[in-house]
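[Q] Does anyone have a clean structure-token version of this?
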Amino acid sequence: MKRATLAAAAAILVTSCALSGPTRISHNTIDPAYRLNEVFYAGAPGAMRTVVTGDPFGVGRERFDEAVTEAMYGHHFGPNMEFVTDPTDDLNRHYKVVMMFDGPLSTGGRAVCHVSNGVQPAAATPTATPSADQPVRVIAAFCRDDLPLTELAGVMARTGVDDPAFRSFVGQVTMRLFPADNPEAHPDRDGDVFMPF
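[A] Here you go.
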């Protein structure tokens, strides 16, 4: 259900943004299991595994990975940590962040968390480069193994890795992936539980 919702939101957003201009987050889901203290645990070694797929600006894998992870740094609640695409063995192998650019619209939920380093989904690396007026589709998740603790979908302008707007948007995505609080963890999150004063 989550996967269908995420895919539908991304599809609607891509259509609307082609008409009104891109750069926004359309869908953000936080699993009830998400807790900020788990982010501290996951990032305790000082870095977190990060998988980046796609190359919407045609700058090459290494340059794009570097641009994304640099833009992510410092834009999150939790411990001071780097985001690395070439993780060492001392990092917690149960956690990672996945950032998919121009990935398949049908991708969502657990499918995002199954993406691993060095594996580029076929639809994430199209043979034909989209035109400059087409927004870049972004799907991202913070994963514990194959469970997306947080996930989102959005679009951004197809400008370039040196554009401050690109860095700002990646920073916003990162902040949404690591919120300070989880509304889903509160007993009365839907307003349907009587809470006496």
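[Q] Thanks! Anything notable?
[A] Residues 2-126+133-180 form one domain.
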